[in-house]
Amino acid sequence: MSDRSSRRPDGSGRHVLALDWRAPDAAFRSLSSQRLPVWLDSAGPVGPRSRFSYLCVDPVSVLEYRDGVLRHDGRVGEPLPFQALADLVSRARRVVEPGPAPFMGGVVGLLGYGLGTALERLPARHAQDPDLPALWFGHYDLVLAFDRLQRRCWLISTGVHPDQTALQRAALLLGWLDQPPAPLAPIPALTWHPDRTQDSYVGMIERTLDYIRAGDIFQANLTMRHVAERPDGVDPASVHLALRARNPAAFGAYIGWGQGRALSSASPERFLSLDARGTIETRPIKGTRPRCDDATADACAARELARSEKDRAENLMIVDLMRNDLSRVAVPGSVAVPALFEIESIATLHHLVSTVTATLRPDEDAITLLRATFPGGSVTGAPKIRAMQIIDALELSSRGPYCGSVVWIGEDGAMDSSIVIRTLMLGRATIVAQAGGGIVADSDPIGEYREMLSKVAPLLSVFA
To answer: How much is the pTM?
Structure first.
C-alpha cells in the first residue's frame, strides 16, 4: 500500500495521507496483532449509516473501569467512570478543520450496560465479570478511515502523541500495514451452556407479563446468556471475521482489550449520533423476524412485521422513551420523529426501526447527552428505571458489556455509537453470547423464546 498524497489540513499538526484502496477486513488482518486494536466495522450493503469504517491502533492513553477499579494508563484513580471519561474527552478536544471522514481521531471505546445502574443509583444483585470491563476507552491518534461508497482510504495521524511527531507516527502505521495479513486461525466447536432452560425463560417472560398487568411497566427487555469455556488457541480477530461473514452489520465493532480479551459485535442498531453542529439522531430497533431462504416467504415475513400491532406498539413505546430522554438535553421543541416503523433487513433478520432526531443545547455535549440517555431504551424498557429494576430481579447473569454502547467521540465533539447487541464477549477463560427481546402486554412467551434463539443463533454458529 503506497500513499498518494500528504497534506496538513489545519494548524493542529494533524496529517492526512490518501492511500491506495484496501478493503477494511484486509487492513484489519494486518493490524489486529498491534496494541489494542479497535475496528468500527460497517459491513454489509453500503448506505447512509454504513458508509465509513475506522481502524484504530496503539492509543496514546487508555481508561478502564473493571471489577470496581478505575485505571487511567495503569494508574488507579477514584471510581467515577463518567467523570473520568469526560476528562479524557476534554483532553482530546481541540479546534480542527473538517476532514474527509466524520471521525478523524479522538476517543473510542465501550460503555457497559452496568454503568446505567450506577448512573441511576440502582442496586445490582449480579457481580460483574472481573475479566470484562464496565468501561473502556482509548484516545487514538492513529486512524485508518475507509469510505466504502467511494472506495477511498485515508491514514490520519493527529499529532498528539507525546513522544513522536505526526509524520513519525504515520510512518509507523504504514510499516504495520505493509506486513503480510495474519492468517485466519481455525475456530473450534464449543459446547454452550445457557443460563436458562426453555421453561425457565418462559417463566421469566410470564413474570414480566405479571408486572405489566399490575401496571409497574409497559415494557421490559429481557435476555439470557450462553457461556462456553474458551479453549487454547482461539484468535479473537478470526472470530470477528467469521461473525461478520455470517452477519454483516452497519454498526459492527471489534475492540481488543489485551490479554486475548475482546468484544466482537455485529450490531445493526445505532444508539446516538451527534454531529459537530449539534444534530442528534437515535434509531431504536423493536420488532424482529427471521429471514427466509424463499424470497416469497421472506417478503411475507417483512410485511407481517410491518403490520404487527404488537411490534408497532413495542417500537412506539421506545420511541416515546427516547423522545423523553433527548428532551433533557435538547433545544426545546427540536425533538422530532421523521421516520416511524420502517423495515430494515440484514443478513439473518428483518427489523422494525424508527428514527428520532433533536438539536443539542449549546451548553451540552456528547458526554452529557450520553448521561441523559444511557443505557438505550430499546435494551431496558419503559418506564426505564422500573424496567431496569425488574431486569436485575429476573435475569440470572450480569450483562457486562452487552446492551451497552460502542462509542466514538471526535476531536470536534461529534459522536456516533451503537447498541451492543448480536455480540460475542471473549474473556480469558470464557466466551459469552447473549440475546433477548422486548416484552409487552400481548407477548407470547414461547414466541419470545423463539425470537431469542433466532437472535443468538448467528453468534453460536461461529463456533459450530
So the answer is: 0.94
